[in-house]
Design goal:
Helices cover 60% and strands 0% of the residues. The chain is mostly helical. It starts with 7 loop residues before the first helix and ends in an 8-residue tail after the last helix.
Length: 404
């Protein structure tokens, strides 16, 4: 294939990465005690979002599927039963949404029930891209509110909301592209807040709702679960059951495109896992995907036990959740930056340099194709690994004594 020209996409990526540098500088100044008022943080956060809110999605067309799924449900049809190009849905086709749906000819919806409920409710008000974006930005308000409450409870300055509110990743992927990860993040933030306030039932319901938008947040369950108290896990299970009930008429099709998507993204043959692929490239021996998945499960289990035993009960919902979420995302190593959005609220409390790099530099994954240009993921994930290693060396390296 011929070399790609420096087109609008690449210009946008350069601009986004420059924003990332400015963002890291702002976070560094904030952490060094620079005076930043909450009204300024909020005003600029709103201004940044307004710049992209009413523009067409640039990097992704997923939002068109959201609107389509809402319209399908509005017609009384189970969204898991038909692909968008199915003649049974021909009456729902329009010029604004249907032609822009990706994988329309072979993929049923991939989004779980709580996401579907959101799509349905939003399209009852406005079956448009702008309407969906507005709803997702409004849900960011829930995330911001939860962060502020948690900052107050932790005795940290409210200005730390800047870490989330000014994140270029969040701005572009929520207000710009309109990804449903904003809703998942809001439920995760509310779940952590409820758990810190000892409202285990509400925490479980919120975590269950987050999992019903995308399955990723299930990894933080050990961090928010209070040992020997079964209220929270029972609430998670109850929410999962309640969420799936309205869609069970689809049978196994209720899983949607997820099984096929796993194969499409290289999660079945192992090529989609950056760590497994890197080890295979370095050793010349590819790691069997089942071996990598089992090893990842073992590591996550050890981390969960360590978090439960070593981290203080009050800090565990935030610190433990960040550790498990970050480990899970590095193991999954997605090729789409919006998968990292839900990590950003935790960075308001634990501004980890490796994770700040991972989230601020996520736009690298858009440069050409991270699956066919693997060194982009090497730069992103490898850079985070180098920063983490440097931090460990700095922490455990012996210090010089004052003696001569």
């Amino acid at each position: 294939m011929a070399a790609q020209s420096f087109d609008a996409l690449h210009a946008n990526l350069v601009f986004t990465l420059a924003e990332g540098v400015a963002y890291i500088a702002a976070v560094a100044l904030l952490l060094r005690g620079a005076p930043v008022s909450l009204p300024v943080v909020l005003a600029l956060a709103l201004a940044f979002r307004l710049m992209v809110l009413f523009a067409a999605p640039f990097h992704s067309t997923d939002i068109y599927r959201y609107v389509w799924d809402g319209k399908v449900q509005g017609a009384g049809i189970n969204p898991y039963l038909h692909v968008p190009n199915d003649p049974a849905l021909a009456a729902l086709r329009d010029a604004a949404i249907w032609p822009r749906i990706n994988r329309a000819d072979y993929a049923p919806t991939i989004y779980p029930p709580m996401a579907q409920a959101l799509f349905f409710m939003v399209t009852r008000v406005s079956a448009s891209v702008t309407g969906m974006k507005l709803a997702l930005v409004a849900l960011e308000g829930v995330t911001a509110w939860a962060i502020l409450r948690l900052l107050d409870m932790a005795g940290l300055p409210r200005s730390r909301l800047l870490v989330y509110a000014w994140s270029p990743l969040v701005i572009w992927e929520v207000a710009g592209a309109g990804h449903v990860d904003a809703a998942m993040t809001a439920f995760v933030a509310f779940a952590v807040l409820a758990r810190v306030r000892d409202r285990d039932g509400f925490a479980g319901l919120a975590l269950g709702a987050a999992v019903l938008i995308k399955f990723l947040p299930i990894v933080i369950l050990p961090a928010v679960w209070r040992r020997w108290n079964w209220t929270l896990p029972a609430a998670v299970v109850a929410m999962l059951v309640i969420g799936y009930l309205p869609y069970l008429g689809a049978g196994w099709k209720v899983l949607g495109f997820l099984p096929s998507y796993a194969g499409e993204e290289g999660l079945r043959d192992g090529t989609g896992f950056w760590i497994a692929r890197l080890v295979g490239r370095l050793t010349g021996r590819p790691i069997p995907p089942i071996l990598f998945v089992c090893a990842t499960g073992l590591v996550m289990g050890v981390l969960a036990i360590a978090i439960t035993v070593k981290i203080d009960e009050r800090a565990r919902p935030i610190v433990g959740s960040l550790v498990l979420a970050a480990a899970g995302m590095v193991a999954l190593s997605p090729v789409y930056p919006w998968y990292f959005v839900w990590l950003v609220p935790f960075l308001c409390f634990v501004p980890s340099p490796p994770l700040l790099w991972l989230t601020a530099g996520g736009a690298l994954l858009y440069w050409d194709d991270a699956r066919t240009v693997p060194w982009m993921r090497d730069v992103l994930f490898g850079g985070a690994g180098v920063l983490a290693a440097a931090m460990l060396v700095g922490r455990f390296a012996p210090t010089r004594s004052g003696s001569r």
